[in-house]
């Protein structure tokens, strides 16, 4: 009985504390047409403190979305266009010699922002990718002998173009695992695209977006997200889903075992739990339901499952594997 009273109080608290999301979405919709899932996933990453990898064709408002979000949150935004000749110092910064003072001073790079857009991350070589991914993981940057913490909230949104393979450097699996979510973006529908045309003709721009919240609100919300109630049954459900990608035969999925090279890491379990809590927060609920887990499962797992040559030969994707797992594991 005590537990239900606590959950009710928590539910009320989260309903009140998540009210700013309506303002944020209203402000973003001034510029962004459609793409509700992409905006929702960006908020998920922001509230859960996880980075997002976006995969989609050019012109689908990836840059515009994060720029709009940073304006609405009154946060710093920087964009890094990844190219094959980029150096780690171009991202994190370097030491510059100052002849007038006869000493070296630190010049910080574009990584020092709240929102960092890493555009076409797969165009830069491994050394540059590693510099960015290290900053993402450690939340700090070392330049010379000094270490600088990155300001919170800190969110890296990396994009990659799925159609071009020439002149690209595929992200290693171990590094892709650093991203909480990998989101696939599709084209808008006909009505949305008509509205996009009309807004462009009217000259609608990101400058029309006003700051409705401060970064401190996001930092406070992150603490609240971790308080969202998750029942033991939901925890077991998350573990069953992740373990089914590692040992499918133990869950009546022996037929997909030859298709999986490796399954989700412990980061998959952590991020699935945290993203489920953040999703419940977005839905203004103080507790996680199985539908929350199922909703974000594809985005958390699609870059954490390795396929065998057999799966690729049969045109079986990570989505197919995740669908089989979700359809087989018993929902609590």
Structure notes:
With 332 residues, the protein is α/β, with parallel strands linked by helices. It folds into 2 domains: 19-222, P-loop containing nucleotide triphosphate hydrolases (Rossmann fold, 3-Layer(aba) Sandwich); 228-328, Magnesium chelatase subunit I, C-Terminal domain (Helicase, Ruva Protein, domain 3, Orthogonal Bundle). Helix content is 47%, strand content 15%. It contains 14 helices and 11 strands. It has helices at 2-17, 20-28, 36-48, 62-72, 88-92, 126-138, 173-176, 190-202, 215-225, 232-246, 266-282, 290-301, 309-313, 318-328; strands spanning 52-55, 77-81, 93-98, 103-108, 115-119, 140-143, 146-149, 155-160, 181-184, 260-262, 306-307. Strands 2-5-8-1-9 form a 5-stranded parallel beta sheet. Helix 12 (290-301) runs antiparallel to helix 14. The longest helix is centred in the C-terminal third of the chain and has 17 residues, at 266-282.
């Amino acid at each position: 009985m005590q537990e239900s009273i606590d959950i009710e109080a928590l539910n009320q608290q989260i309903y009140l504390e998540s009210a700013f999301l309506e303002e944020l979405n209203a402000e973003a919709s001034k510029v962004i047409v459609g793409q509700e899932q992409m905006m929702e996933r960006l908020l998920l990453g922001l509230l859960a403190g996880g980075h997002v990898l976006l995969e989609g064709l050019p012109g689908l408002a990836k840059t515009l979305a994060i720029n709009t979000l940073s304006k609405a949150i009154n946060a710093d935004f920087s964009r890094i266009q990844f190219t094959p000749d980029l150096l780690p110092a171009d991202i994190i910064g370097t030491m510059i010699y100052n002849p007038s003072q006869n000493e070296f001073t630190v010049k910080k790079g574009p990584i020092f922002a709240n929102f960092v857009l890493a555009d076409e991350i797969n165009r830069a070589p491994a050394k540059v990718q590693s510099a960015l991914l290290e900053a993402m993981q450690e939340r700090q940057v070392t330049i010379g002998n000094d270490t600088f913490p990155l300001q919170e909230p800190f969110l890296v949104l990396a994009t990659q173009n799925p159609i071009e393979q020439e002149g690209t450097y595929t992200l290693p699996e171990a590094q892709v695992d650093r991203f909480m979510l990998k989101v696939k973006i599709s084209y808008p529908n006909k009505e949305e695209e008509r509205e996009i045309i009309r807004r462009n003709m009217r000259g609608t721009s990101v400058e029309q977006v006003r700051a409705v919240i401060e970064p401190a609100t996001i930092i406070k919300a992150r603490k609240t997200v971790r308080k969202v109630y998750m029942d033991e049954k939901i925890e077991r459900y998350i573990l069953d889903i992740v373990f089914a990608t590692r040992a499918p035969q133990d869950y009546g999925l022996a037929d997909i075992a030859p298709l999986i090279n490796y399954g989700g890491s412990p980061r998959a379990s952590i991020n699935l739990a945290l993203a489920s809590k953040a999703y419940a927060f977005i839905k203004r609920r103080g507790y996680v339901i199985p539908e929350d887990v199922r909703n974000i499962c594809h985005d958390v797992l699609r870059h954490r499952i390795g396929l065998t040559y057999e799966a690729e030969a049969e045109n079986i994707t990570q989505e197919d594997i995740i669908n089989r797992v979700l359809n087989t594991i018993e929902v609590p």
